[in-house]
Amino acid sequence: MADNVEAQDPRSVDETPISPILPNHVRKNSLEHHLTHRPERAELVEKNILPASTAAPGLQAHQKELQKHMLEDKLNDKISHRPAPEELIKDGVLLNDPRAAEKK
Questions:
Q1: For the chain, percent helix, then strand, then coil, each to nearest 5?
Q2: How far is Cα 17 from Cα 75, in angstroms, rounded to an integer?
Q3: How far out from the chain centre does Cα 38 lie?
Q4: Each residue of 50-62: b (16+ CB within 10 Å) or e?
Q5: Are 94 and 88 in contact (CB under 8 A)?
Q6: Angle 78-59-68 from CA coordinates, rounded to 5°
Q7: What pLDDT, on a 0 to 100 scale, did the predictor assign at position 44?
Q8: Could you give the dihedral angle defined by the CA atoms of residues 28, 32, 33 and 37, in that order, rounded to the nearest 10 degrees?
Q9: What pLDDT score was predicted for residue 76?
Q10: Model pTM score
Q11: What are the boundaries of each domain within the chain?
């Protein structure tokens, strides 16, 4: 290989491709192979590559935002109805007030 480098004209630029360029028929066969072996939609949904929604792609972002707000509302409702620590101590669920450790 060293002989090959010395034989080249130092002013010339090596324009050989870094990766081999395949002939068109080989590339076409490769594309056909990949298309025939691509995963099913259900598999892509299972792997969270595609959204599970059947809504139009233009509406999916809005649908996701709506789901996020619905979850937020649901959690806020549950938090607002959560029993106070005093009530949990009275019912025997908590042994002592967890806020007492924060005051120390």
A1: 60, 0, 40
A2: 57
A3: 19
A4: eeeeeeeeeeeee
A5: yes
A6: 15
A7: 93
A8: 160
A9: 98
A10: 0.46
A11: 20-50, 57-104
